[in-house]
Structure formats: C-alpha cells, structure tokens
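Retro notes, structure queue

What went well: the backlog is down to a handful. What didn't: a couple of records were mislabeled last round, so from now on we paste the full input next to the output in the thread. Example, using Heterokaryon incompatibility domain-containing protein from Colletotrichum fructicola:
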Amino acid sequence: MMEDDLDKTSLPALGIEDIEKMKTFWRFTIRKASAHVWAFRHIRFLVYDDTDDEVTKEDISKTEECPYNDSEDEEATLRRAIEMSLETENVSPDRSPQHTESEPSAPKGPSANHHGLSNKYDICANLPEFPHDRKARNFRIINPGSLDPTRSLERLRPCTHHVALSYCWPEPAFDQLGQLCQPPRESKVRDLNGIVRKARALDDVLDRAVDFANCAGLRMIWIDQECLPQPATDGPEEEKEYQQLGIQAMDIVYNQAIITAGLHSGTISNQTTADALGILMDLDDINAHEPLPRLDHLILDELYSFLCSVISDRWYTRAWIIQESISAGAKLVLSFRRGGGIDYPSSLRSPENPTKHSLHSQLHLHSSQLINITVNGFRGLLRVAKRLAEEQFQEWAITPHAAQGSFLSVLENAELLHPSPIAGKYPLAQCTIRGGNRYGLRPTVNASTSLTLLRSRQCREAQDKIAIVANMCNYDIRLNDRFIVKHCTSLRLAILTLALLNGDLSLLVPELYLPYHINEISNKWEACPTDGLLSPFDTNPGAIHDRTMLEKGPLNPRSYAHTLIGTATFGLPLPAYIWTIDRELDLSCLKEQLASYWHELKILRITVVPQEGESDFAFRARQNTAYQHISGKIDIQKKALQEIFQHGHVHKNSEVWSGVDPTGIRCTAELNVALIESDPAARQKLAGIIFVILAHLNRLARRDPGAAGVANSIWHSLRVDYIQGLEVKLPDMVCDDLFTHPGVLLDAFSTIQLHKGPDNSYLQTWFIDRIMRHGTLWIGRYTRVHESMISRRTSAFAFLPFEDQAIGKGSRGRSEVSDERQGSSSSGQPQSVSDRFREKDILDQQSGKETFAELSEIAMFHSFGSSGASKGINVGALVRLLDVRFRSIWTAEADEARAQELLSIFDVDGPCVIATPFNAEWETLPHSALRSMSTCWVVEELNRHAYGRVPVIEPLCVESKGKGKEKETLSNENPLPEKEGEPDENTPLYKVVAKVKGFWQLMGFPYGDVLFI
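Corresponding output:
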C-alpha cells in the first residue's frame, strides 16, 4: 500500500539508502511514445446510436442471455466514413482526394447531414448527430483507428472534432448492509463487440455531455468511464493494459480535443447573475489604460456570490480534474447548469470545427440547459474584477462582503483555480508545429507546480498521482504505477524519482517551501531545513508553493542524460557544472557611487520568528505587538534602516526597540517593490543602477578579463527575451552596443526581467545588496570535472554523418553563445551549417532547437508503427547532440576555453565549491523564476571509495503473461543504457551542505553526471 505523504511536514529526512532505492525504480519506467500511439490509433469515442431508438429494458435483459450483436453492420458504416477520410482504395490513383465526391444519405432524424460534408478528412462527418429535442439514451463505442490497422501512423489522419469530458465521478454510496448502491441508469452503450450494456456514467452526466456537444456542433464525446475499460482486479489483462495506456495518455486526449467540457455542479439560477457575468466579461476588452465604466454595487455582489459558488464546486477538489484542465489549455470551457428561464447564449461553434451540423443555421431549435464560459473568459472576468477593486473601491466598500475584506480573498482564491500561463515575447517562441502527435500549444507545469495544485485535490488511490503529475508536466519518462506500488510505499519518493528521471529539479528549490510550519507531532513551530541535497522536499513536501505555468513549454526540450540507473557506487547522478569560488572582485567604487540611490529604494521589513516551545497563540500575539510598534512610525523606521545600512542589522539594545522585546524579531531593508512597480521614476532608478554596474564591468574587462564573464552572467540572469515593437534584438553579451540599444535608451527597465519570490520581493537584486554592503562580489571559476570524459564522449560521436567534423575544432568565443553574426568565414569560404548555427544569437538558436525537437518528435512518432526502436529515443538527447555537433561544446578545446574564461557569481561570504545542477528548462529566454532562486549547491567533495560499491540491479520490468500472472522480463521500451553514460571511477562524489543564489551564463548540457548525496 502506497502512502500519500505529499501533504505532510516534519518527516524524517531521506538518506543514502533512499537515494539508492530511487535508482532501482528505473526498471519500471515506460515511455510516452506508447501513449501517443494509443491516442492516435486506439482511442475510442462515444457516439449516438441511431440504429434502434426503441430498444426497451426487456431487450437489455435478453442480451444478457443472447447478446445483441450488430457489429458487422456498424463496421461497414464506420468503415465507409474512415475510407472517405483516409483516402482509402475507393479513391482512384489518378484522382486527388479533394475531388472525391460523397453522396449524402437520405435524411434520417438526427443522423441527417443536410449540408453535406464540409471536410472529406473528418471521420465525424458521417456519424449521426446527437438528438437535440429529446434525451439521448442509446450510445455506441467506436474506434476509428482500428478499422485500418495496416495503415502507417504517417498516413493516418485522426479527427480532433470531439468533446473531451472533464467531470467528477459520483461518490460511492452504500446501503444499511454496507452493500454498494448503484444509481439508476436508463442509458445504454453498445461496445465494440456489439454487446449492449448499461452505461457506467450517470444519465445526468451523459445528458450534459450531449447538450454540450450540441452547443459545440460535435458528434463524438470522449468520457473515461465509457471509453476506457473499467476492469475488476481479476479482470482481463488486455483491458488493464489498455486502461493503463489510456491513463498515461490522458493529457494527450484533452490536448488534442477541439474543446473540453468542465462539468461543474453549480447552477446559475437567476437572470441577474447571468447578465452580470456577461457585462463584466465584455469589459475585459477595454484597454488597461482606460478607466472602466461605473458599475452598480449589485453587479459586484452577484460576482461575489458567483465566485464563492465556483470556489466551493466539487469539480475543483478532484486530482484528475486539474490535469485535465491544464492539458486542455485555452480549449477548456466551464459548464454550469442553467436555471429555468435564464437567457444566455449557448452556442460554442468554433472556426476550427468546419464540419457541418444541422443546428448551425437553426440555433433556436436547441434549448440548452447549460451556461458555458470559456476559461479565458473566466480569467477575463477576474481581470475586470481586480481592475474594479482598484478603480472603484468606493463601490466595493458598500458591498455586503467587502466590509469584511472577504471580497479580495475570494478573488485571490478564484485566480488560483486557473492560473494564467506565462508566454514568451519573442514571436518565434509563440509558434508551434502541428502534425503527427502534436496538436498545438499545450500548457505545461513542472513538478513543484503540479504538487502545489494537487495539494487541495483528492483521488481514491495514492498512486494515481504518479500518472497525474506525469501528465501535467508532459514527461516523456513515466513510472508504471501498477508495479511501482509493489516496491515503494512512499508517494513522496516515487514523485521525486519521476521528476529527477525527467531532468526536473524544481522540487529541490528551497524558496518554494513555506519557511515555517507547525510540527504535526509536537504542535510547535519549525523551520524548513534547506541545507541537504533533497531538502526541503524530503522533510516538508506539504509546504511547497509554486504556481508557475508555461503557455508553451518547456522551451528547451528536457534532456535525460542521467537515468538514475543503479550505478556501482553510491550517490545520485545528476548533470552539473562545478565552480571554484576563490576570488573577490573589488567594486568599492560602485558602492561609493550608488549606495545613496540604492538606499532610497529600500523600506523596512520586520519578520517575527517563532521561538522554541512557543504556542501558536503566543506567537501571533508577539507578532502583532511587533507590527504595531513599527507600523506607521516613520522615525523608528528611518532609525532602523540607518542601522541596517551601517551595521547590517538592528542591535538588540537599539533605541528602535524602546519598550519591546526584540527576541525573534528580524529587521531587514528590502526593496520597495510596490513603489517600483507604481512609480516610473523608481523603476528607472533601479534600472539605472543595474546598467551602471554593467557599464563599469564592461570597462573593467579591458584590463581584467574576468569582469566580462561576471557582466555576462549578470546580464543573462536579468535580461528579457525580446522587446516588442523594436526590430533590433538585445545583444547576447555585455558590450558597448548594449548601452546604445534603443530599448535601453528608451526604457531600460523594460529590458530586465525581475522575478518575485513567495514573499513578493525581487529575487535577483542580491548582487546589488552585496556590492552596497561589502563593495565586492565573490567569483566562481568553471572547473572541469575530469578530462577523461571529454575525450571519451568526443570519440563516441565521431561516427555520426554530419556535414562537417565540428568536434575537435575548438571553441568559438568566450561564452556558450557566440556574439558573432551570420556571414562568411574569415577565409572567405561559404560557412558550414555548424558555423551558421554557432553564430546565431540566443533566441534564434533556441527557436532552431525547438523546431528541430518538434520535427524530430513528429518524425519518430510516424516511425513507431514500422519500428519500435524509436520508442526508446529521447528528443532531448537529439537536441543535445545537435548542440554537441554544431557548437562544439564537448571538445577538449572548448572545455579549456571555458576553464579560462567562464565566470559566475554567487551569494556566498567566502571561498567554497559550488555545483549548479543542470535543468534544461532554466537555460532559456525568458528564463524561469526558479533559476533566480537558491538553485546553486555549496558542496564538499567526499572520498568515493569510502562508500564502497552497491549491488548492480538487473534491468527488469513487469510484463503480463496471461490472466492473473505476471513475469519480470527485459522491456523493449527500456533498452539498457550504454555504459558511456555511467559515471567512471574519476567522477567526484559531493555532499550538498547549503543552497544559495547565483548568476551564470545560459549554459548547454554539461559533459556528464556528477554524484551527489
């Protein structure tokens, strides 16, 4: 039995034995490739069964003895639709598919296609429509892809014109004897074998699904209860395998559907609420710089009541729902019940759904019982509400709920239901390739965000969250929860393994965890430890808080060089860069020049720290006393700030504390973020300080080459990706051109990207604080892990047929990204592909790698049907290979150049060794906020041989062999990794002793793994 310990705090820390256990779980990995094939060829849909609308309950009982089978007729009908949509043998070779004529059948009730076929490639065009004038009670399951199993995936054209249903399964009910009660169901479903059975989904759910499909003009529905088998424990193994693949493909199902219906349980029961929602959503079209019209407070009151009902809806309590809503993205529609007599538009016709439908021109014939609001419409509703709160606070003040401050709280909670995804500004970053197994943009989260969103969600089986997290994060490597549950009792350990297998290090970032929490056992306040490799996640997974969502991600394909394979020595193998910090760069002249301007942007912040043995009540009382003593007293605040600027802290005997016990009270000088974001002058002052520092480093580089590396590390960690409206891109490196760039001259603040931490403070301004306090910065030199791996990996790629032998030609500059521009080589000869790729700027290289990854993914997917070999190929590895060959980043010469020129800075107070573990998602523009947090590990090197060797685990996975029998055998999907990837005897073993912030240049994939404990 697996325990769901993800919401707990104060757990025992994970040790070396747990790390070694994690390394054995790779035996139970499965690739996303099989799920893609399932969603493309084997997915089933629920459609209306119009063959016999008069089947009675007696007919159902008869089928139990003599099943009703009409599969031959159904296959013939559906095959005709498939042949038309897939250009089968009915199309003559000399006749192009677009000229194929279709003879529409005679109208027959809801099956009528009065308008003919609008798209010859849509399977759904020849399927019957759902009835709109009565309840649909007869359904059937279809599997379009199975009718032509010989057709390759490349030639198979799936139809995305279907509704994916997102809804809550009913809670199980039991009678007085403890027997499970089955709710009455009238609906019937005919399975693929022709046998008619009672529907597994409730009639109410199917009624709303059909209603929604008619609103959208669609004829196919995907609903898990009907389209996935629900085998019992002793059920057929083939059904279990089909269900397992379907679960792993859930994110694909909702991403490929043209629309997703989120069936809420709430009802909009009065016209006033419906009118208010329509008015408020229309206001979102008004420019943000223009004031909104004055609104009656009754409209705001209706909004409050509506948001309260949405927040409390059961739909937001289920774990499966959150992964469905994220995968659907902007195609999600929130569907509410409609009260009697409510007037509200119901049509959801989309230009992406060209298939003709009889209701297109006769909307009045469909009396929908639903009120549908798109997820973007809901977000717009919340944007308008926030603007109204700022612009019309007087109207808000007289609402019944605002007096208690509850309105803004409800608004904040409503925003958390559907976080707005983050999108890059660079035009090419907003494009994506469609085709094969790619269905357009799909929002993506990392492990930390997925666990944050799941914290308030429940599911019946703890291990279900393994597949849910993998789907939310769009991981390529999955864990088979059916089998890992037999070897792992902690969900926390399984999720951590899943994230690390996919190169996702977000769970190891300290700032994502609440700093203090109540110990569940002692009921005392405790701090989250942040000094170990796996902390704070291993001890306090329930304290995680991250709501970052990418509209399109990750921009840099994930790489899976480390596989957590059971290596022969202890330690967690992770790709990382190692830095030796042994030098302070003197910047005292900047301190003298800028300190006064920097201090003007600061305000006092007090933090009250819980004390040992202090009760929650006593802590809150002491906290209130401290706030009352400081709040609103300008003289005390100025005195405290002055002491902080001079001494770094407020002394316990300071006059600041007169009459107040300073025990456990910390005073810090923080940037006034509210002032900076509201005052253009303050923004430009902050930007001016940053660019003065960069300009000084640029000048200093003429006599101290190390200053250039420091400047570039700062710039790469602060810059935006792109400035809209300007044709000239920002320089990749700090140079004279940066300070004359139009964006910097017009609005320097718009060229930097400052991330906020959980406490709403800027994460990247620590380096300015160090300069203003100490007049120095500690510099880290890139340190080669060992030289043997360089030559070994170089020779490993020598056989690849690229047009030039890039490997061995050396580095092309002082950075991972060259600042040269495209053109001819210095010899006047035409440039090779490698030269042209190396000379592209960061954004173009990034877009090129992303496009290459998308095309590679489609090409490999199309080859799945003919060869299973491509199932084990990782797209991220191909992109890494592209980097290796075209930018020569794995040569001995390039590594020597890095050792001489690559420098970084870290928030440390003295010499040390630091590791920056590689996370592909962090090395992009725009960069993730997590990159600005404490992702740098202060490490101590250990004697590897003192830890001995661990037993080698055979590469086994579980494969079904007959009903009720299981056999462990080598998996074809998980080929043995090459020995090339295993750390050799010279690979160092490090112990993580602290985590700090740092700045480094955008980096490519490192040479190899380093071992950590």
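Agreed that this is the format going forward. Reviewer comment attached to the example: The chain is about 35% helix and 15% strand.
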